Amino acid sequence: MGYGAGLVVPRHDGRGAALSRDQERWQRAKQVLDEAIAVESGERASVLDRACDGDPELRREVESLLSAHEQAGSTFLKTAAVGLKAPSSPSRAGLRIGVYQIIKEIGHGGMGEVYRAARADGQYTKEVAIKLVRGGFDSRFVLERFLTERQILASLDHPNIARLLDGGSTDDGVPYLVMELIEGTPLDEHCDNNRLNVTERLKLFVQVCSAVQYAHQRLVIHRDIKPGNILVTKEGVPKLLDFGIAKILDPTDGSKTTLDRPFTPEYASPEQIRGEPITTASDVYSLGVVLYQLLTGRSPYPGKTSTAHELARAICETDPGRPSSVVIRQLIARSGETRPAPSLSEISAPREGSPARLRRRLAGDLDNIVLKALRKEPQFRYSSVEQLALDIRAHLDGRPVAATKGSWSYRARKFVVRNKVGVAASAAVALAIATGVGLTVREARIARHQAEIASIQKARAEKRFDDVRKLSDSLIFEVHDAIQNLPGATPARKLLLDRALDYLDSVSKDADGDADLERELAWGYQRIAVVQGNATESNLGDINASLASDRKALALFEAVAKANSEDAIDHLNVAMMHRILSYSSLTETSGRHDLERAMAISERLLKQDPTNPKIKSERSIEYQNLGLMRDFQGDRPGAIEAFRACRDLKLDILKTTPSYRRIRSGVGMADALYGMALARMGSREQGLKELEEGIRYFESMPKGEDEINVSRNLAIARQKRADILLMNGDTAGALKSYRETRSFLEPMSKADPQNTMLVSDVATMDYHEGRVLATEGHYREALSSLQRAAKVFKNLHTLGRPMDDAVHGPSDVDIWLGDTYAGLADLQSALQYYREAGADLEDTNPGETKVSEKDKSSMDDDTRCELGTVYVRTGRALMRLGELPEARVMVQKALDVSRASSATERRDVAALYVVADAQAALGDIAVAQTHDAVGEERARLKKEASASYEASTETWRQIPNPSVISPGGFLSHSRSRAR
C-alpha cells in the first residue's frame, strides 16, 4: 500500500515483523507529519530537528511523506496507490503464450499487465484477456501472489464475475492467466453515459452485490471494489474484475492485514487505511462508496482531500453527508482539476430530473442504506453484502428496509404503497368499522352504567352492545374473508384480526357467561392463529403466538360446549381445536393425546348424526393427522390405512354434499397424501395414479375459490408427483416438474413476502432441484440450489418454526449438501455438513453425540431413519479418508438407531433402506481394512465383508419394489449390490 512515491507503510509479513511495533512507529511518523504540514515550508526543518532528534530513520520516513504530500496533488485520487514505481517492461505484442497470440496491451497496474490476445492454434476463433506479472516484479513473493490470484479466480464461477478460462507459465517461468475478455465501460461511466435513473442504477448495483456475496461465500474478500473494477458490457451486464489483491479469508489468522497489497484509497475502508485486520465488512464499505457515487455523482469525502494525508483523515474521521442533502449543494472543483465541477442539474437530470426530485428520492430509506454501509465501525455496517442487497431490493419493492428503524406506521405506509388499489377499499371499510366500533364500545359502556338507573337506558345499552358484536363479527369474518386472497394481504389480515379481537376482548369483560360472545371470541382467536403461524395456510411464521391463540380458542369452545351440552356443533368445535393443536406436535405425547380426544368426540358425534357433512369433514382431517402420526412412528401400513380412510370420507362428502366448502380441494390433497404413502411403500405406479387423480381435482376447481391455498396445494401435489418420478429414475421428468412448480409458487411468494408458508414452499423446490442435480452428478449446479434452500430453512428454524410440518428441514438439506461435496471429493466439507445434520437431529452441538443418552423411543421414526442415514454417510466419508475404526463406529450406530433387528418385523420400509446401506458400508470398510491386514486377520475381514454384503442383499429382498431413492428422499448407495 502506498500514499505516494517512496512511502513505506508498516505491515505484518509473517517473517518476524511485529504489527503492533510497526503501527506505533507509523502513528509516530503520522504525528510528526501533521506537525510539519501545519507550518510554513521554511519552518519545517526546525520542526523535524526537534521531533526527530536522535532518530534519523524517522526523519527520513517523514521527509518521504512530506515529499509524497507535495507531489501527489490533484492526481492522487485518480490512481490506485501502488507504493513503488513500476519499472518499464518491453512490449509483448506478437508473442505467443500457450495457444494464444498477444495482440496489444490493454491495461496495467500494480504488478500486472493485461493484454488482448487471440487463439492462434486454428481450432476456433476467440479473443481473450491475458494477465502476466510485469517485468521487474518477478520476485518470488509476487509470483506467489499471482498464483494465489489464479487459484481464487478458479474457485469463482458467477455470471457477474469475469471468468478464468485457462492458466499456465510462459517458457521463462512467468505465470499467466487467460480470462474472459470483458469489453465494457466502468460502472459509473455506463450509468452516466446512458443517463440511467436511480432505480436503474440500483438494479445494476444489486447484481454487483450478488457477485461480491458469491465471492464472500467462498471466503474471498475482493479488497479493491471501485467503478473501474466493475465493467458493464454492451448488453448491460456488470462484471466484477481484478481479484489481484483479493484475499482468501482465514478466520483463524486475525493478524493478516491489507497492508501487504495495494488498493485504491478513495474506496478503502477505515480499517484498511489504518492497517487493521479486515473482514467482508471492508467490501461492504467499498460498495457503500460506489453506491454513494452512483446516487449522488460525488465522493462521500468531497472536501479538501487532494493529498494522501487529507484523504486518510477524512475516511477515518469524517462522517459522509446524507446523500439527499449533498445533492442540493454545488460541487467545488478540487485545486489542480482541469474540468469544472458538474452543476446540480448535470448530476440530477439523468437520475431524477431535478435536484429537488433527486433529493426526495434519496431521502429516507436510501439515505439510511448508504450511511449504514459507510459506518466507520465494521460491526455497525451491514452484516453481509447480501443484507445490503436485500435492503435495496426491499426499497425497490416498496417494502420496509432494515436500515430504517421501522415503526408500525412506517411499515403500514410501505404496505399501503405496495397495494394502493387493493388496500384503498379495505382501508376505507376498516377505518369506518374501527371508528364505529370505538365509538359504539364507548357508548355501550356508558349505557351499561346508566342501565342501573333506568331500564330504558339498559335496553339502549344492550342494543349498542349488540352493535359492537355485529361490527366485530363483520370485521373478523366478512372483511377478513374478503381480503384474504389479495396478494400480500397477510399483514393486513393480522391487523384487522388484532383490532377485532381488541374490541371483542373489551366487550367480553362486560358479558361473562355469554355463550354466543364466547363462541365469537373463540372463532376470532382461531382465525388469528391461522394468520400467525398455521403452516398449512398463508401465515407470518409466529408459531408460538399461533399456539397461544389456539389454546385460548380451545378454552372458550370448551366453555361453550359445557353450557350447551346438546349442541353437536359446539362439541365439534372442541374436537376441531384438539385436532389443530395435535398437528403442531404430532411427534410428541401431547399431540397424540390431543388427537385421541378429537377422534373420541367426532366418533361419538358421527354415530349420533352419520350424514352430517361437517362431522364427516372433521373426522376425515383427523384421519389425515393420524396418517401423518403413524408415518412418523414407522407404522407405514397403518399410515396408508389412515390416509385411505381420509380419502374415502372426503369422496363421500363430495358425493352427498358436492357444494360443501373446499371439498374438491380436500379430495385432491387426500389423494396426494394417500398416493405418496403408497409410493413410499413401493407401490409407485398405484401411488402415481392416485396423485394424478388428486391433481385433476385441484385443476377442476373454479377460479377465485380459496385461490391462494388451492393454488399452493396444487403445487404441492405436483411436487409429490415429481418425487415419485425421481424414485422411478426419471430425473429429467422430475427436474422439469420441480422447476415448473417453483415458477408457479415464486410469484405468489414475492407478492406476499411475509407469508412464511410460501417462502418455505419456494425453498423446498430449490431443495428438490438440488437433489435431482446431485443425483445426476451435476454437483456445482446442485450446490447453488441447495445453499439457497438451506439459508431459508435455517432462518425459519431460527424463528422457532417447527420443521415437522414442512416438506423438508435444515437437516435434509445438510445431508444433500454433504453428498454434493462428497461427489466433488471435498470430504472435509462433506463431513462438516453431515455432522451439522446429525447435531440438528440429535438436538446437540456439532461434534457431540448424545443420542445414546436419550430415550430412543421418544424419537419419531422419520428422524431415527434420517439420523441413521447421516451416520452411514459420515462413516463412508471417514472410510474414504482412511479413518477406518471411526468409520466402523459410525456405521454401527446407524444400525442401532434404525432398529435393524426389528425393521423387517415392523415392515418399516424407510428403516430397511438405512439398514441395507449400513450393512453394505460395513462390508466396504472390512474390505478396506484387508489392505493392511495379514494372515488370519485378513481372512477374518474377508469373511466379515462377505457376510455384510450378503446381509445387505437379503435386506434389499425385504423391500418391496426398491428404488435408488429411499422413502426419506435420499440416495441409496448400496442399491446396485441387490441387483
| CATH architecture annotation name of the domain at 184-405 | Orthogonal Bundle
Strands of the widest sheet, in order across it, are 1-2-3-4-6-5
Structural class given helices, strands, pairing?
mainly alpha
Main β sheet profile: 6 strands, antiparallel
Share of helix, binned: 55-70%
Q: For this structure, what is the CATH class of the domain at 184-405? A: Mainly Alpha
Strand content bin = 5-15%
Topology:
Layout: H1 19-37, H2 44-51, H3 56-72, E1 96-97, E2 100-109, E3 112-119, E4 127-133, H4 140-154, E5 164-169, E6 175-180, E7 184-186, H5 187-193, H6 198-217, E8 220-221, E9 230-233, E10 238-240, E11 247-248, H7 270-274, H8 280-296, H9 308-317, H10 323-326, H11 344-351, H12 355-362, H13 365-373, H14 385-397, H15 408-418, H16 420-451, H17 455-483, H18 490-508, H19 515-533, H20 543-563, H21 568-583, H22 589-608, H23 613-633, H24 636-656, H25 663-680, H26 684-699, H27 707-727, H28 731-751, H29 756-775, H30 779-798, H31 810-823, H32 827-842, H33 861-880, H34 884-897, H35 900-906, H36 909-930, H37 935-957
Helix pairs in contact: 1-2, 1-3, 6-8, 6-14, 8-13, 13-14, 16-17, 16-18, 17-18, 17-19, 18-19, 19-20, 20-21, 21-22, 21-23, 22-23, 23-24, 24-25, 25-26, 25-27, 26-27, 27-28, 27-29, 28-29, 29-30, 29-31, 30-31, 31-32, 31-33, 32-33, 33-34, 33-36, 34-36, 36-37
